[in-house]
Amino acid sequence: MTPGTGELLDEVVQACAAIERYVDDSPPSDLVLDAVRMRLVEIGVAVAALPDDLTASEPGIPWVRLAAIGDRLTNGRRPVSPPVLVWTARVDAPRLREAATRLRDRHALRAGPTS
């Protein structure tokens, strides 16, 4: 069964929240960086399945780049440096979580109550 839009947005919100919890003010360990990478892969899969008309309502988020992040992180041709991962975790993940939350809320309003 394919996840619905609301479920996909929930996945993005939850993955971003996890990333934010992983990274504090201290330098992250290799284990933390690996966890951030895996959550970003999850985000990429979920974002790739979101409808374009929905993501277009949040133009400040690079949705197309996010959809491809899994390939970039897993193909090994151009590794992502730890400082870029930390920046993504500390700056980009909160922005994405906020945008995905707004999208989820708007989608829920349009979808109406579930029975």
Question: What can you see in these coordinates?
Answer:
This is DUF86 domain-containing protein. It comes from Curtobacterium citri. Helix 1 (5-22) runs antiparallel to helix 6. The mean pLDDT is 90. The protein is mostly helical. It has one domain (5-110). The longest helix has 30 residues, at 82-111. It is 72% helix and 0% strand. It contains six helices and no strands.
Strand content: under 5%
Q: How many distinct helices?
A: 6
Number-wise, the strands total 0
State the low-pLDDT regions, or none: none
- What's the structural domain tally? 1
Q: What is the molecular shape?
A: globular
Level of helix content?
over 70%
Mean pLDDT: 90
Estimated structural class: mainly alpha
Largest sheet: none
Q: What value does the Rg take, in angstroms?
A: 14 Å
- H-E order: HHHHHH
Terminal CA distance reads 19 Å
Please give a handful of descriptors for the protein shown:
115 residues; mainly alpha; 6 helices
Question: Helices, strands, pairings?
Answer:
Layout: H1 5-22, H2 30-48, H3 52-55, H4 63-67, H5 69-75, H6 82-111
